[in-house]
Design a protein that fits this description.
- The complex is a heterotetramer of chains A (about 350), B (about 290), C (about 240) and D (about 400).
- Chain A is mainly alpha-helical and about 350 residues long.
- Chain A has one domain: ABC transporter involved in vitamin B12 uptake, BtuC (Orthogonal Bundle), CATH 1.10.3470.
- Helix content of chain A is about 75%, strand content about 0%.
- Chain A has a two-stranded antiparallel ribbon.
- Chain A starts with 15 loop residues before the first helix and ends with a helix.
- Chain B is mainly alpha-helical and about 290 residues long.
- Helices cover about 75% and strands about 0% of the residues of chain B.
- Chain B is built from eleven helices and no strands.
- The model of chain B has no long low-confidence stretch (mean pLDDT about 90).
- Chain C is of the alpha/beta class and about 240 residues long.
- Chain C has a domain of about 150 residues: Rossmann fold (3-Layer(aba) Sandwich).
- Chain C has a six-stranded mixed sheet, sandwiched between helices. A four-stranded antiparallel sheet of chain C has the order 2-1-4-5, with helices on one face.
- In chain C, helix 3 packs parallel to helix 6.
- The mean pLDDT of chain C is about 90.
- The chains are: A mainly alpha (about 350), B mainly alpha (about 290), C alpha/beta (about 240), D alpha/beta (about 400).
- The interface between B and D is large, with 42 and 39 residues.
Chain lengths: ~350, ~290, ~240, ~400
């Protein structure tokens, strides 16, 4: 997956072959992981003392964050629109899922696409006016969205629906068809993984397709794109809507995995985390979303392990160090390294 | 009626606070064309230094005030040189991540060094009500006064001095600026220093009103940001007016129109609405370029 | 006459790509030298290399001082003014602010005021538009602005990067007339880069021909003008 | 660690088989407990906007260090594993799962926050892990029927709200009440208790009810509005920063209501002093613990012990911070419960002992206020006493409310 970059429309398609094999192996490995972990982890004994179930749960979170970051990447990385507010769509997705399950007894798997569609519509409608703004102004608008959504969720008059400040507790799903071979954590992992595979596959096709090319054209040469007959407002709003849909799907998965939603889960720091994951993973890189997910899931834990006195100070140092060492994100660094290795081989 | 007037004046007082923070944002924007998300936390940290100088060092208010401004200037200068200099040719979003890093670092350090209990920050102004006026106190008048002074200084600096002109030039077009001999790197660092200094003034004025703690600036920065954008991010005067508009609008909306629960959301929606109509802010200049 | 600029074995480039492969040329005090060449020959890079705007190797001696590897700001302070490719207008500032910036490094304030008047005398159109936002000026006016800004440095050497580019012939003529004036009256040496060889050879006393990063021919303007190949490929008659 | 565990269970097994001595047989352990150690888990917001509460975890660790220096509990050292949850529900789920599944702690202690604890409520009860003395004032932690593994500690906010209501109904039946509350679970819990306490009279008595958000820079506008409503009684449900702002602003605009301040902010040193002691005169609050900044306790032995402990074990800590008293008190409760559990360190017995604390006297609680629990009563502290600020100290008055 690491080489399946689609950063530029002109990227040579010729090297698709080996990549496809690499991706297949990577994905197969991910699918085999829950079965491998219980075998491998005890062998590693002293090195990694993680328990398989817990690790599977953490990896599920990584996958969920990766989907959200991929969504942000679509609008920020490929379309060049800055968003500080994707936590809002994560929240909307999560609440849509939770409300559907809580009030309508909707099956959990159905809530995922519904959340995506809801966020698509909300994102598109938000984008239509807001994307006329640019740069810092768009940052303010999206920041306002991230701030307003948790407040709206608490709003008195819709408390019957959202549970107000108390949030909604939902039931964690068991594996379907009474399958006993895997436990609930493993099932959630598979669910997230399958959804992620679909979403990543769709994203790759989107970026390589007509809309993707239009998005990139707008990012790089907005005036030229307009002259070429691309409708800027519609394409930008579509990109924003699709991006929101991705984040909403992640939100729904997140709600199901955590089995609880509350306004406090979706503070502005969630939006900032997504942005951090995006930049540190790699802008305009499909695989970057995965590295970004890993970063925002694990680095706070590392910071906490280093210092209880001021874990945020450590986290901040990590952030600054990360942009020093890899200004183009982890994906960019890996690409450079691969290019060097290829050059060395020749 | 009296309550209404009271809300207006209280809004103006809050607006003075937003305006002073907005000025620091205008400063950094004019000098570097970035909006520094860590500006609020840097101001908070500088205010803690001022507090420590007064409480631990036993200094007179004005001595501590001036000393803090100098320390903040040096701190801002140093941060640009050490943290941001290596990033100057990196993508904008990388720089924004560095800002976020600075934000969390200052927030955590302040909590670690100074604790989280709120601290009273002294005011240099008399506590008695001025001219028998019940609506404003001396500190609020003083805040507005100092903000206006800072505004005038900023205006004069940017419009009338060669250094101010050079700073703007360096931010607008670094390459051309080098070609006339401007040391662009130095200008950026000076801009950071000045913005940090203005931020520290804002912080010390704000702290008396909202009490000093590590999260003091979290909410205020957003209002300052909104004020600056509403008034025009490259226009110090506009930013100050923007601050007053936001302060008053927020109070009036909260008290009479939509209630306190949603006032921030509605205020932000209104600001964005204004920006859609006037994209460069109420008083900002639209940049026209012939190609 | 003394050499003002002496360049030996100049190599320069961007990133991994080398654009100039060892240029050697010189410029005499008070003279006008032109570097001719096709698109992509390395003309702009040569000027940028002198100004320290690109990574360089080799020797560049200006007025007796080695300047290769120095920062742009420091080279400017020695009296090298650059009218860059694309004019480098500060579009958000006013015309007058643009012009004044040219004198940023000078400390002789009284003389600066006099120079401002002189520049406006050369370009009265700019004086009319003093308070106008520079981005709204026409292309020709912006070119005049760039030259004015460079003159405000009171330079020893003026580097000019295609001042005729994209301008109407009448305006080009006007600009070149003024440049010649400046050269004769103020004794400012000039290094001129042009695609329009005709007009460049009309003003310059020396010329170099650059092809893909190498100097392939040099001599006085008259010699170059009469060279068969030059006539065919660059002068078009 | 694993080795030790196997070894000890082997020993225990052998001992049980041989039936040598009853004392041996009584040693029963669940995961996290051994002959030498008791491992428990904790989470709190060391980072993020709620990091002001982070000091509680550090105080608990400091108290654990003190106990270990003194030889531990029944010969076993305490080991606290504490993680940062950033006050985020998703994060606490991860961290608590790490504590339970990976670190295999015996029990969870004093996890902080209402939304955070709600997120793990079901999980810990399904896993049957004791979830003890949680640091939140919500009411839902005392529900042994549905959630037999979760227990609160501090008096809950609703109870406190009811106390103020009772006082008003008794002493100022025609009050015109204005309320300011923080728009979150904490504020709304207080509000609900207060309204429940007023009962049907509430409709008539409450003239204005305003909220604020934690991101609001000031609450001046709300105070002006409350004054304008004609309220003569003020229920101030705010955290320290906003409480100090409210007290000062009310003084500045000469609004002099009968002022009830929630316990959360009832600190002489860190709220009333910054707000201005002269403006704080007459404020009524309900308290259950000793305020370390209230001069009336300066010569109290319990205060001196607390202060000495702070100096020795938590010198970085802020002595003005009431959270450090909170951490001390709740840790004291924990240690008392563990002593009572003896050598039977199963999760079941831990829960049983937690639910049978009888008249436990915690030194930094107010005299006469004790910790009491039973299998049907999962609210350890239910008593509070009203106090009025006289310009120097909070003077206790009236009866002790609660059973």
């Amino acid at each position: 997956m690491t080489t399946s970059e689609a950063t530029a429309p002109a990227a040579p398609v010729a090297k698709k072959g080996p990549n496809a094999i690499g991706i297949t192996i990577f994905v197969l490995l991910l699918f085999a992981l829950p079965l491998l972990l219980p075998v491998v982890l005890p062998l590693l004994g002293g090195i990694i003392t993680l328990k398989p179930n817990f690790m599977i749960f953490q990896l599920t979170l990584v996958i969920i964050y990766a989907i959200a970051i991929l969504g942000l990447n679509i609008v920020t990385g490929y379309n060049g629109q800055f968003s500080l507010g994707h936590g809002a769509f994560y929240a909307i997705g999560a609440y849509t899922a939770a409300i559907l399950m809580d009030k309508l007894d909707c099956p959990y798997w159905l809530t995922i696409p519904i959340s995506g569609v809801v966020c698509l519509v909300v994102g598109f409608l938000f984008g239509l006016p807001a994307l006329r703004l640019q740069g810092h102004y768009l940052a303010l608008a999206t920041f306002a969205l991230a701030l307003a959504v948790p407040q709206l969720l608490k709003y008195n008059h819709i408390e019957w629906l959202t549970g107000g400040v108390q949030g909604i507790v939902i039931i964690k799903p068991d594996p379907p068809f009474g399958i006993k071979a895997i436990n609930a954590d493993q099932w959630l992992y598979y669910l997230a993984l399958v959804v992620a595979c679909i979403m990543f596959w769709l994203a790759i096709n989107l970026i390589r397709g007509r809309l993707g090319r239009a998005m990139i054209a707008i990012r790089d040469h907005p005036i030229a794109a307009e002259v070429m007959g691309i409708n800027l407002t519609v394409v930008k709003s579509m990109a924003f809507g699709i991006s929101a849909a991705y984040t909403g799907v992640a939100g729904a998965l997140g709600a199901i995995a955590i089995a609880f939603v509350a306004p406090d889960s979706f503070t502005i720091f969630l939006s900032i985390s997504f942005l951090v994951g995006l930049v540190i993973g790699g802008l305009a890189s499909i695989s970057g979303a995965i590295y970004g997910g890993i970063f925002i899931q694990f680095i706070p834990n590392v910071a906490d392990a280093i210092s209880k006195a001021a874990p945020w100070a450590i986290y901040g140092l990590f952030l600054i160090a990360a942009v020093y060492v890899m200004p183009t994100g982890a994906a960019g660094l890996i690409k450079q390294w691969q290019a060097k290795r290829r050059a060395a081989k020749q | 009626m009296e309550a209404f007037l009271h809300q207006i004046f209280s809004g103006l007082a809050a607006g003075g606070i937003y305006a002073s923070v907005a000025l620091a944002l205008v400063m950094i924007y004019t000098a570097t064309h970035h909006i520094n998300f860590a500006q609020g936390e840097m101001a908070m940290f500088a205010t803690f230094i001022g507090w420590a100088l007064i409480e631990w060092g036993g200094l007179n208010f004005w001595v501590a005030f001036l000393l803090t401004i100098v320390i903040a200037f040096c701190g801002g200068f140093a941060i640009e040189r050490i943290v941001l200099r290596p990033l100057h040719d990196k993508p904008v979003l990388s720089i924004i991540i560095a800002f976020i890093g600075l934000l969390v670092i200052f927030n955590a350090l302040a909590g670690w060094i100074f604790g989280f209990t709120i601290k009273a920050f002294p005011s240099p102004f008399p506590t008695s009500p001025p001219f028998g006026n019940r609506f404003l106190n001396w500190h609020e008048i003083g805040t507005v006064g100092i903000t206006v002074v800072v505004l005038l200084l900023l205006f004069a600096f940017f419009r009338l001095t060669p250094l101010g002109l050079a700073m703007r030039a360096a931010a607008f077009n670094p390459e051309s600026a080098r070609l006339v001999g401007i040391r662009v790197g130095l200008m950026l660092a000076l801009g950071w220093g000045l913005a940090a200094a203005i931020g520290s003034v804002a912080g010390m004025l704000v702290a008396h009103v909202v009490y000093l703690d590590p999260n003091m600036m979290a909410g205020i920065l957003l209002y300052g940001f909104a004020s600056a954008l509403l008034g025009g991010i490259d226009n110090p005067g506009g930013a100050v007016v923007g601050g007053f508009i936001v302060g008053v609008a927020e109070n009036v909306l909260g008290a009479y129109v939509i209630g306190t629960e949603l006032k921030l959301s509605v205020a932000l929606v209104l600001i964005i609405g204004v920006l859609l109509v006037k994209p460069a802010g109420l008083f900002g200049r639209r940049i026209v370029t012939r190609v | 006459m003394a050499k003002l600029l002496d360049v030996k074995g100049l190599r320069a480039g961007y990133g991994q790509t080398e654009v100039l492969h060892g240029l050697t040329f010189e410029l005499e005090q008070g003279g006008i030298t032109t570097i001719l060449g096709a698109n992509g020959a390395g003309k702009t890079t040569t000027l940028r290399a002198i100004c320290g705007m690109v990574r360089v190797a080799g020797d560049i001696v200006f007025a007796g001082q080695a300047i290769a590897g120095k920062a742009t700001e420091d080279i400017v302070r020695l009296g090298v003014a650059h009218v860059p490719d694309g004019r480098g207008t500060f579009v958000q500032l006013t015309t007058e602010e643009n012009v004044r910036l040219g004198a940023y490094v000078r400390s002789d304030k009284g003389q600066v005021a006099a120079d401002l008047d002189r520049v406006y005398h050369y370009f009265p159109r700019l004086k009319e538009r003093r308070m106008q936002q520079a981005g709204t000026l026409s292309g020709g006016e912006q070119q005049m602005l760039a030259i004015s800004r460079a003159l405000m440095l009171s330079p020893k050497l003026l580097l000019l990067d295609e001042p005729s580019f994209g301008l109407a012939p009448l305006i080009v003529q006007e600009i070149y007339r003024i440049l010649r004036d400046i050269n004769t009256k103020e004794k400012v040496s000039m290094l001129l880069v042009e695609q329009n060889a005709n007009i460049a050879l009309g003003i310059a006393d020396h010329a170099y021909l650059l092809e893909t990063g190498n100097i392939v021919m040099s001599g006085t303007s008259d010699v170059i003008k009469n060279d068969e190949t030059i006539r065919k490929s660059y002068l078009g008659y | 660690m694993k080795g030790v565990k196997y070894l000890s269970s082997a020993v225990a097994l052998a001992a049980a088989a041989l039936v040598i001595a009853p004392a041996w047989a009584q040693k029963k352990y669940d995961t996290g407990a051994t002959d030498t150690e008791i491992v428990f888990g904790h989470t709190g917001p060391y980072s993020g906007p709620a990091s002001a509460y982070g000091t509680i975890g550090k105080a608990i660790q400091a108290y654990v260090n003190k106990i270990n220096d003194e030889g531990g509990v029944n010969g076993r050292k305490l080991k606290m594993i504490s993680y940062d949850d950033g006050y985020s529900p998703p994060k606490i789920v991860e961290q608590v799962r790490r504590l339970v599944e990976q670190d295999e702690v015996l029990f969870l202690f004093n996890t902080l926050g209402t939304p955070t604890n709600t997120a793990i409520h079901k999980y810990v009860n399904a896993k049957k892990v004791p979830h003890l003395f949680v640091a939140t004032g919500a009411t839902k932690w005392g529900d042994p029927k549905r959630f037999p593994w979760t227990m609160g500690w501090q008096p809950n906010y609703q109870t406190e709200g009811k106390i103020y209501a009772a006082y008003i109904l008794e002493n100022k039946p025609n009050a015109k009440i204005g309320i300011l509350y923080q728009n979150d679970d904490y504020g709304k819990d207080y509000l609900k208790g207060f309204k429940d306490g007023l009962g049907s009279a509430g409709q008539k008595l409450i003239v204005k009810e305003l909220s604020y958000e934690v991101t609001d820079p000031t609450i001046d506008s709300q105070i002006i509005e409350l004054k304008g409503s004609g309220a003569d009684t003020f229920f101030n449900i705010t955290t320290p920063k906003f409480a100090a702002q409210a007290i000062r602003k009310a003084g500045d605009i000469e609004w002099k209501p009968l002022h009830f301040l929630n316990n959360v902010s009832a600190s002489v040193g860190s709220v009333l002093t910054p707000a201005g002691l002269d403006k704080s005169v007459g404020i009524i609050t309900a308290i259950y613990a000793k305020d370390p900044t209230d001069p009336q306790w300066a010569n109290d032995q319990a205060y001196k012990d607390w202060s000495a402990w702070m100096d020795k074990y938590y010198p970085d800590g802020d002595k003005k911070d009431t959270f450090n008293v909170f951490g001390y008190n709740v840790s004291y409760t924990l240690v008392a419960m563990l002593k009572q559990a003896g050598d039977n360190l199963t999760r079941e017995n831990i829960m049983k002992q937690a639910a049978s604390l009888k008249n436990l006297n915690v030194p930094m609680l107010l005299p006469g206020i004790n910790v009491n629990t039973s299998p049907t009563d999962f609210y350890p502290i239910e008593q509070e006493q009203l106090a009025k600020f006289n310009g120097k100290v909070f003077e206790l008055f009236g009866k002790v409310y609660g059973e």
